[in-house]
Amino acid sequence: MPVKVPSSLPARGILEAENVFLMEEPRALHQDIRPLRIAILNLMPTKIATETQLLRLLGNTPLQVEVTLLHMASHEARNTPAEHLLEHYASFAEVRHQAFDGLIITGAPVEQLPFEAVDYWPELTELLDWAGTNVFSSLFICWGAQAALYRYYGIPKHPLPEKKFGVFPHRLKVRHERIVQGFDDVFFAPHSRHTETRREDILAEPRLTLLAESDEAGVYIVQSTDRRQVFVTGHSEYDSGTLQGEYARDLRRGLPIGLPRNYFPDDDPAREPLVRWRGHANLLFSNWLNHCVYQEAPYDLGTLPAKGGQA
Description:
Substrate binds at residues 163, 192, 249. Keywords: Acyltransferase, Amino-acid biosynthesis, Cytoplasm, Methionine biosynthesis, Transferase. The protein is α/β, with parallel strands linked by helices. 30% of the residues lie in helices and 25% in strands. The protein is globular and about 60 Å long.
């Protein structure tokens, strides 16, 4: 939340140079407050687990959030009961006439397919284009980030020689953007993917800024220069046992999979995983919700300006 300070306070200049969010009393007195409307397009097969992870993080702030869960009508979910989708989810067609303060698009287990080969790609591209005018701020996760970077900026994904799997240290490239406010010099986040977004592709696009990366896991956080699109290539929302479950699943299926890196103490899968990303996850989501959505979105969503890029 912002700090309200007098304009004459000496600390104000220092904090503003660090991009700490300050608010003058006149603005504080005239703020209109209402629940934030957040849409979540949940593309993960384990929909109930994913929605729980995301709602836990969104609920860890003092802001009031009204969530609309979305699914792709052009895709038949095999791992979630139809009754759950009918009761709790809406299709894109049902909300396309509405406007939202924020949108989250999750990862999906389709990264080894070309984007155009994904069965719901036409519907997803419609939604991404709609978000440019009907959503104030968007947060894209893992494959969702790759899909949005491709649709908006023409940035491709590239196959990796082996799955990027584990918990990796990351460093900030830009310190004073509000989405990374309060991050440690080195922070951890889980990754679980077969493809990557390359830093040279991000650096070559003037409408994007690389905010954080890892020597081992590569590009991590990218932001559009208008600060209304945030792309996260990992899974900070994961629970303590999510990578453990994916590891056991791949072993059962006979897939080539190594131990998740930096996850089990002494690389012993019989021991409880070590969680080193929970603080970062909460900070990432609270920064997005506060700085990118609550403090910036207009009170009247009917006045949303267009955002983002289009390849």
